[in-house]
Design goal:
- By secondary structure, the protein is α+β, with helices and mostly antiparallel strands.
- The protein has helices spanning about 20-30, 60-70, 110-120, 155-165; strands at about 5-15, 35-40, 45-55, 75-80, 100-105, 125-130, 140-150, 170-175.
- The protein has two domains: about 5-80, ACT domain (Alpha-Beta Plaits, 2-Layer Sandwich); about 100-175, 2-Layer Sandwich (Alpha-Beta Plaits).
- About 25% of the residues lie in helices and about 40% in strands.
- The strands form two sheets. It has a four-stranded antiparallel sheet with strand order 2-3-1-4, with helices on one face. It has a four-stranded antiparallel sheet with strand order 6-7-5-8, with helices on one face.
- α1 runs antiparallel to α2 and α3 (about 110-120) packs antiparallel against α4 (about 155-165).
- The chain is globular and about 55 Å long.
Length: about 180
Amino acid sequence: MNKKKWYILNIIGTDKTGIVAAITKILTANNCNLGQTNMARLGGAFCIMMMVRSDYNQQDLTEKLEQTADKLDLFLHINEIDDSNGSNHKNKEKPANIHLGVYGADRSGIIADTTFILAQHNFNITDLYSDLTKSAENPLYILNIYGRCSQKIEIIEQDLKKNLPKNIEFSLKNIETEIY
């Protein structure tokens, strides 16, 4: 038997009931182990990103999933990831310590402007979620960013106030990560 390898699976298709069940059933039937996963509906599409550990090589794993992906009209892409240091299945990173909520009238560049400012402070984004309200008259763009940064929150806050457009509101907070 081959040494188990870690892969990242990206699966995207029109949202419908049963996608997660069908994919995970195939993986389980082939003795694959799931690691970190992130699944979300984006517009009318359903997107899956998951780490999978398997005895199969990349081509064989792809073949195991292709029939189901084709049947559900899903795009499937698999990448082998280097696990030479044995850390891919463990999240050794410290959890996010800052949350930034950004709200404003929908316009081009909200994510670009915000993340550019954060990058200047060495803010490492761990998760980013955005959505647009359904109001046709006054669409509101909502952006939530979680990440790690060693810089004082007050310094980042000053830079956001100075550089984001005045019609964009934000809330920047430290996240308590200590467990008592």
